[in-house]
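Q: Could you fold this chain for me?
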Amino acid sequence: MASYNTINAHDADCRYPAFLGLNQYGQETMTDQRYATDEKNVETINGTMQPCAKCELLPPTLESPIETLALLHRRWTEDTEKDILVAASGGKLYWAYPDATEWAEIWLPEGVEAFESSEWSCVTYEINPEGSAASVDVLLMSNAKDGMVMVRGDTKTATLVETPKRFGVIERYAERIWGGAIEDDPDMLVYSAPFDPTDWEADAEIPEDGAGDVMQPSWDGDAFTAIKSFGSQLIAFKRTRVWRVYGTNPGEYMFNEQYGGGVPYAQTIGVDVDKILALTDRGPVYYDGSAVQPFYQEYVEDIFHRRINKSAMDKACACMWRGKYYAALPVDGSEINNAVLVYDSQERTWLFRDDLSIESFLPGETALYFTSSTTPGQVWLWHENSWETGECTTAPALWISPWTELGYRQMTKGPWDCYLLVEVKEKPVTLRISVQTEKKTMTKKYIVWPVTDQHLGHKQKRIHFPGYGRRFRLIIESEEGSPCWRLIGGVMLVAEVDRD
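A: Sure. Below is the predicted structure, expressed as structure tokens.
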């Protein structure tokens, strides 16, 4: 927070005690200097500022773009590797261990040479094959063109599953598989028999033991686009409406329409502990179990009001992983996702990076995977905390503080002394530190050298800026290709002040 001397003081200080992330609301009046009105490619961890970590490109490569990436965790296997990645590319399916160097093709069902679509909705489940007491972990995959396919975790083979409709999306809820986004029945949801994802037959004598379907029309041309399990409920999304499903069997099912509208971009839905997050053209929204409401939209309002490319938002995607919401979106006229917004639910901060082009996310128990349009046949591994990994993004970093008048509009401020502490490891880093007023921008280059004596630490630096102005703000930048660095303990700007 800012700390200011009395009006009769000869100088006053503006303190930036820590760094928290974006807050683009009230840029002219905000007094909390911990936030940035604009930033890119930086992390704020425990109040420190540092470049984003470099993500890792995994070696397995496919000739065609990976349009769907899924993870199957196999509990019922003697293999030491419990997880396998499943990729859909060029109408075919492939599998690989996360640390493998190449993909292996999955045997397709008899008579199928290639699938019509490579965009699948995926759910993990298990089956008990007839004549065997052992359980088998399976990956259920479905799309509105090809229907449902089951990939076995033991044999890595695919078989067709006969369903009454071809589902664009599927989800597991109360031990049934639910399907929706049906092209010829957009208002229908279909559910399987309990405990058997291959049984889609109704049971006339005991309906609770069989499959069935429900209709929830909205009579406006809308359609179900996503189904998400949320605690003890199933949430069914349309573009303009949301439905909540109660109960665990057909005799108990209750459908209630929720308030606040729907979610136009189904691929941006991420399920958190107590809420579901998603993106709209206006900004982030959340569903809390009763209504869809704006979610900290003021913190990222400049991105959504001025930079977002609404015509390409249908390509946006997102996920929740380890308490963070990752959203890839197109900005500045791009037709592909060329930026990522990250919301940290623990620190309640938004961060922005523009060094990645992400087509899809895959959250796993121990890792976050993603695919990119820059490497269409490969998979990436997300990394965080560049100071620990030792590798940071090569993209330039930027941090711009809010404007401040130190509480005294009638007084002239300047010159300034900037006090900061920057740490580097093995290579020197050049930072650009600027003080900007309504008159001009004054920039100093600061070269930070590694500490050669292990018993000594980095020294605090004082940088002097000439000039004057009624108001000012701080700008911190690193150059493209800079090694890892971090700014700890915040920053202090001490300004001389003069009354008119």
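A (continued): Helices lie at 301-307, 386-389.
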